[in-house]
Input
Amino acid sequence: MNRRTLFLSFVVVLLTAPLMAQLTTARLQQVLDAWATLDPAKAGAFYAKDPGLAFYDVAPRAYKGWAEYEKGTRDVFKTMKSIAFKIHDAAVHNVGNTAWAMALVDTEVVDKDGKHEKMDARWTSIWEKRGNNWLIVHDHFSAPLPEPPPPKPKPSAKKKP
Output
């Protein structure tokens, strides 16, 4: 291999390496698949463990640090038989060692009594690249309020004879 080819190969690797290390939407689904096991420890592989980090969920409203988040979700999961997540309209924005991601999430929960409940959710997360791993440092999972019912028709005015 001549020097020019070797040099150009090296330049291509240097230019594409950051692209290969970026956070992707496929990674988002991996996080939700881990949560779907109902074992917070599996999801924990995707989260930073700093004690002061904020994680917002549907219920309860907020957790401070991974330890609190893991305990809280473990308690909530005791009431569930299964949970499934499917993301759509996902987007990831990478800037250096930081990324933010957002997605709409179709969620279906089956409780211990077999009752099915569907929820349309929104998920926003902030990630940091630490070493070779992308870790969530802030997570916000929420559900919008239900649509208000349509307005009631106004009573028609009666004509006087």
About this structure: Confidence is low (pLDDT under 50) at residues 5-20. The two ends are 103 Å apart (CA to CA).
